[in-house]
Amino acid sequence: MSTTEQAATCERQAVEARLFDPGLDYDRACEVVAWCGGTAVDDGCEIDTPEGGGLASPGNWIVRGAGGEHWPVSLAVFAAVREDAGDVAPLAAQRDKARAEAAELRRTIRAIGNAREADRAVAALPGAESSAEATP
């Protein structure tokens, strides 16, 4: 199993769990949505739980119980209740690094967009064409 799929024993019941984090791996997150029968929404993954609906936020684990039911579980709670399957600290660090890289990429894309918008605004100024033509 990969670092985003875990078999764990939680509260003396074997469960299957998958990490939902589009910022870490968007394609993998889409697979997790399909795996749990959920629906991707702007702020996470809506899933049916035995108690109604639940929302798995980015960075949450989606746990499948013995009866096939699904539950969204935060990283902290998942780490606290599981008895095996290793340490989640590397996952948290990897998630945080990926989120920081994604934020930097978004800032860069916005800056490029703003620069293009500024170029268009300057080009639209009266006399901009003639000054551009005069510049070698």
Structural class: alpha+beta
Q: What share of the residues does DSSP label as strand, in percent?
A: 25-35%
Tally of extended strands? 7
Residues in helices, as a percent range: 40-55%
Radius of gyration (Å)? 23 Å
Give the N-terminus to C-terminus distance in angstroms: 60 Å
Low-pLDDT sequence parts: 130-136
Total number of domains: 1
- Side by side, the strands of the main sheet go 1-2-6-7
Mean pLDDT: 75
Number of helices: 4
If you had to describe this structure to a student in words, what would you say it looks like?
The protein is an alpha+beta fold. It has one domain. The protein is built from 4 helices and 7 strands, in the order ββαβββββααα. A 4-stranded antiparallel β-sheet has the order 1-2-6-7. Strands 3-4-5 form a 3-stranded antiparallel β-sheet, covered by helices on one side. The longest helix is centred in the last third of the chain and has 35 residues, at 89-123. Mean pLDDT is 75; it is low at 130-136.
